[in-house]
Amino acid sequence: MMKKWVLAALFLSSSLAHAALVEGRDYTVLAKPQPTVAAGKVEVIEFFSYACIHCYNLDPALEAWRKKLPANVEFRREQIVWNKPMEGLARLYATFNATKTLEKLHQPAFEAVMKKNINLAEEDKLRQWLPSQGVNTASFMQTYKSFGVNAQVARASKMTRDYAVQGTPAIVVGGKYMAQPAEPARLLQVVNELVAKVASGK
Prior knowledge:
Elements: H1 2-17, E1 27-29, E2 42-48, H2 53-66, E3 73-79, H3 87-98, H4 102-114, H5 123-129, H6 137-144, H7 147-162, E4 170-173, E5 177-179, H8 184-199
Parallel strand pairs: 2-3
Antiparallel strand pairs: 1-5, 2-4, 4-5
């Protein structure tokens, strides 16, 4: 009898894990769907912040997920900007991208902010931190203050508003669906199902 109950419980949990997505519980539909830039692919955007503990906790699972994406899925991150003080982190992230140091510095930046309480949104703190990462500070800061990075910070601010991001991490699929907050495994499962939904034209 006990074995039957265990099997029934396993079956139920498996069924729930693969249950159809429910709008309002698993995801929401953006009030104003946004155009995607990944032509012919399903676009997935994570709106995050280096100052967000939930983003930090999600990141290992998200990185593992990212490395296994099929060819028809395009993933990228966007550092959110809700107010002026947050522009520093958006500028940092844009500079990582512009200098092609994102793969090298993304995780250390998270560790610095979340574990060492180094506010990398402040320029003087950033200047002190960069040498410890083997980065040419002068070259990095030249890009940090460039017109191109200024434009990316303005873009991040606009996207935060356009996508109506209220909290992080927020993962948007196909410019239309935003996955609801959940523990990492469930969140990524919902994202996968939303990707399949968009890929099927729904």
